[in-house]
Specification:
Number of strands: 6
Strand order of the largest sheet: 1-3-2-4-6-5
Order of helices and strands: HHHEEHHEHEHHEEHH
Distance between the termini: 30 Å
Bound molecules: uracil
Radius of gyration: 17 Å
CATH topology: Uracil-DNA Glycosylase, subunit E
Structural class: alpha/beta
Helix content: 40-55%
Number of domains: 1
Number of helices: 10
Amino acid sequence: MTLLLDERRVAMLEQFGIRWQVRETALEEEAPGAAEAPPVPVFAHEAARVPVELSARATGVELMAWDVLEETVAACRACKLCGTRRNTVFGVGDRQADWLIVGEAPGEHEDIQGEPFVGQAGKLLDNMLRALSLNRREKVYIANVLKCRPPGNRNPEPDEVAQCEPFLRRQVQLLQPKIIVAMGRFAVQSLLGTTDAIGKLRGQRHSYAGVPVVVTYHPAYLLRNLPDKAKAWSDLCLARAIAQDG
Ligand code: URA
């Protein structure tokens, strides 16, 4: 019986792995969250570093309805990324979603299309969602920590994360999802206010603004570290269990 279960599990994981395979070319959007690099400092939860103007702006943002919030993001000039972006990337999906997926920042394709995760990492994310019988338009909402592309896909800078944080916070308040999946170190550090490594944080239930959070690897990282897909699958199964059972 155990053998049968193990065989089934192996077959499922193999299928999962195959379904996650994407072409290894054209990975220029990989840079956001691509590497399991050393932790960066935590910004969003360091109140002392948040300037007064941001606090005032955050107060306005926290009362906004979806459409006003989206318009505010589109018009945002709070940090230097507004000077280089082609489009803001607000988020995509079901505004009554059970699942909120949080990534890092738009890459080149996202900047052009104005939608998160549309490059190679996005294809992997779509396959991960499909393995859960989910898709990006139903029961799922996808957003990033940053709404504008950092030039050349460089890492987000502290002031950029701090200026954008009220937008993601408001998206969470409006969505009230059953589960947040934080993908990659910037999402994790921004939501959880910790510099601990993903390897240490995964496999547990965390919390952001009263919503359960599960931590996992960024899809761009998984494209380069295929064996960690099995860990990501286990993280998604934990997220599904929490979403189903609370
Ligand atoms: N990586 C991210 O973190 N977000 C995107 O939207 C695309 C790539």
